[in-house]
Amino acid sequence: MVNTDTPPALRVMLVDDNPQRATMVEERLWAAGFDVILVIPSAAGLLFQIEQNRPDVVLMDLESPDRDVLESLAIINHHNPTPVVMFTQQDDPDYIREAVTAGISTYLVGDINPDQVKPIIDVAMAQFRAFQGLREELLSTRAQLDDRKLIEQAKGLLMSHKKISEDEAHRLLTKLAMDTNQRLPAVAKTVLATLSLQGKRKD
Q1: Nearest to 13 by CA among 62, 46, 88
Q2: Does domain 11-112 have CATH number 3.40.50.2300?
């Protein structure tokens, strides 16, 4: 009987400018149960390769990665967040700070140790998931604050235009939301646009 509960192997993209080391690391990755979907010798076209192949994690070991690499990773982190583990000889604090800002999950100074790739990837994946959870929570909080601000502004305009109390303005917004089957922030946005336009016409 086939066990359908087994999760699919993590798809790894390996970027390594040392061919001999890349071969050893790839072998260890396969042996550890990873699916190595692509091995490339440089970061040239990195953005394109990640977009095309959509790996679960990117493992990079480059002798001297430039800031173009970080720019590509920052774009990916914004549009399609992907865990990235970077090994490098670059120990400049400014570069490390930029690397973390670009979205690199794990930054390690030194070469890849083929025998340690699995635990390192496991940690990087855990860190990535934790960070994504925090980011989603922050975005949700910001959205809630923006919604609340819209509702308060709409209530203020309704109170001013219709000479009603705050409670009455809130009840009116709620009724409009129910009648139109929309969320309260969407109704508030419409009210703001409509009343603001009316105000401009009067002027």
Answers
A1: 46
A2: yes
